[in-house]
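ARCHIVE CARD
Drawer: 12
Card no.: 0347
Subject: one protein chain, sequence and derived structure
Cross-reference: see card 0346
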Amino acid sequence: MRRLFDSFNSHVLAFAYALKVLIPIIIRTGRRPVVFSRYTGMGDIICTVPAARQLMQRHAGTTFIYNCHRNFAELPRIAGVADQVTSLKSIGQIGHWYRFLLGGFYDFAHGDDVPGRTAREPMVADFCRQFEVAITDQHPELAASPEATARARRILIGKGLDLSDLILIHPGPSWAIKEWPRELWMQLVAGLRSRGHTQIAHLGVGNYAHIGQTTVAAIPGTISLVDCLSIEECIAAISLARLVVGIDSGLLHIAASTRTPAVGLFGPTDPQFFYEPEARRQFVRTEVECAGCEHRRPRLHWLMGCPYNVKCMQSIDVEQVLQKCLECLKTAEPSAAGSM
């Protein structure tokens, strides 16, 4: 009975979407719109952008709709791949029953999403291959508007941060299995501060898209920017930073898209399936035997909890992460924008 109700409800939502979104566009423009969809995390949306930008050239002059989680609605517009953003979770119904109303329907599926498949290449390349456009593994370049950059600068400076040596960390929240223990973050921050790098800010949000509202514990020695920045302001702040240190997350993808040096911490996911070689050059990946479990079948999925007490993340050595950070800071020039 529950399955029948869910099926009926998804059909009703799809019909309403066609009536309220698609048909008005067709009446207004005289052309059928094109839909892009990736209803997962912010990093996944970023990885669709190179393919979406090429697909837009196939449909020049039409209206482009990007369907994604409402928390990330700002991102497709910033990336220039959406005239309109929607948040219909069961978008597949549109592609099936209402295809005749569309100029194109592109529902991006990563290798790990497809039954019987696992990832074999970086997500950017996988999405390009899916729709037969020129294949690249490079993250798209993203830039905040001058207005958003000015707002971000005011917020950072208002927090007492010197932007010429800004380090941004992102401990989470995320799926618990992706997180590095808080005590290790504290040790890393203490190590950076003892070497003169004291301008450290803590990025993040208290309401994570897939787990809801949660308490974000402060990391001693950092300035909290939790819930202080919009997505576009985060892009601006990351572009101003000398270094980003974080777990596998959308903010790490933003660092790749702004070409900001980054140290990423990986356990259940493998960076080779998400980032090009240059972007992941200073990433730290645990070497325990069960690392990368997300990319195997049967999957030891984090929704079910880790049977090994998340030893992949707990085994990442603080000193190794610290040395990676210092290497990045040694080669990264102080931010010219931050020193103005």
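Annotation on reverse: The chain has a mean pLDDT of 92. Residues 15 and 94 are 8 Å apart (CA to CA).
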